[in-house]
Design brief:
By secondary structure, the chain is of the alpha+beta class. The protein has helices spanning about 10-20, 30-40, 155-160, 175-185, 220-225; strands spanning about 1-10, 25, 50-55, 90-95, 100-105, 110-115, 135, 140-150, 165, 200-205, 215, 245-250, 255, 265-270. The chain has two domains: about 1-115, Mannose-Binding Protein A, subunit A (Mannose-Binding Protein A, Chain A, Roll); about 135-270, Mannose-Binding Protein A, subunit A (Mannose-Binding Protein A, Chain A).
Length: about 280
């Protein structure tokens, strides 16, 4: 189990846990509840509480855990005057430090815990991860993973970070060739996808003033690669959405894309020693 101290909305917490190969934790048994409380108290979560995976977002009033366990089968002890469904807008359950539950608005932000069942015989690859889809590239010394399921640029960023890596950054012509070859090995991506021949990378126009830097705050030139495709960046506006995030064509030449709404495949990068967080 892993506690995230930085508050998030319920849905963002659910997505973050999913990206880590886990689920948003719920007190599924009587013995599980004190474990969750102990983790909260050890991290000084003594005032507000933490989101659980128990929700009624699919149908009003029908609460289940992320795993589908109905509320009636969960060891729930309600806080005083709860649940109250304040203003008919509370569909997510919060575990309070004293072990009681309260219903809250899912759009509020709270800390949360991710839970993954213990697995035996986990084998770490040369990339320092149990994910077999990362491979070590000797020409660069980095590991890469091509994601076929398209996401917005921001969601892709979160996914790579959750895997212990980051959206890939091109630091040389050699690395550009590596990513070009990786893209070529993946001629098809899973639908739906806004653009199948563009992959999100780790750079952006951070201040929206046409000053492009990597997600690690280097200019593209300082990072080692600034080869734009002809006519790019053009900040083409589609559906009134400008282009402030970075990507590459299959040629490895750079492109600017929308950060939200439109979804693309993407490439994650990690160092071999950047082990996944426990």
């Amino acid at each position: 189990m892993k506690l995230h101290r930085v508050p998030a909305t319920w849905n963002e917490a659910r997505l973050r846990c999913h990206a880590e190969g886990a689920v948003l934790a719920s007190p599924l048994t009587q013995s599980f509840l004190p474990v969750m409380r102990k983790l909260m108290l050890a991290n000084n979560i003594t005032q507000c509480g933490a989101f659980t995976g128990i929700h009624a977002t699919l149908y009003k009033g029908v609460y289940t855990s992320i795993e589908g366990v109905p509320l009636a089968r969960l060891p729930i002890r309600w806080a005083k005057d709860e649940p109250d469904n304040y203003e008919n807008s509370e569909e997510c359950l919060l575990l309070q430090p004293d072990g009681t539950m309260a219903d809250v608005n899912c759009s509020n932000t709270f800390p949360f815990m991710c839970y993954k069942k213990k697995t035996t015989n986990i084998v770490a690859t040369a990339c320092g991860t149990s994910d077999p889809n990362y491979y070590l590239e000797p020409r660069t010394g980095s590991c890469y993973k091509f994601h076929h399921i398209c996401q917005t640029w921001h969601r892709a960023y979160m996914t790579c970070e959750s895997e212990g890596g980051h959206l890939a950054i091109i630091n040389s012509n050699t690395e550009a060739q590596v990513l070009k070859e990786l893209f070529a090995k993946n001629p098809t991506v899973l639908s739906p996808c806004s653009y199948k021949d563009i992959a999100s990378l780790g750079f952006l126009d951070w201040n929206r003033d046409n000053y492009w830097t990597t997600i690690h705050s280097e200019t593209l030139e300082d990072a080692g690669y600034a080869m734009w495709s002809k006519g790019q960046p053009d900040n083409a506006v589609t559906r009134n959405i400008p282009q402030h995030c970075g990507a590459m064509f299959r040629t490895a030449l750079l492109d600017d894309v929308q950060c939200e709404v439109f979804i693309y495949p993407f490439i994650c990068e990690k160092k071999p020693d950047s082990l996944e967080e426990n």
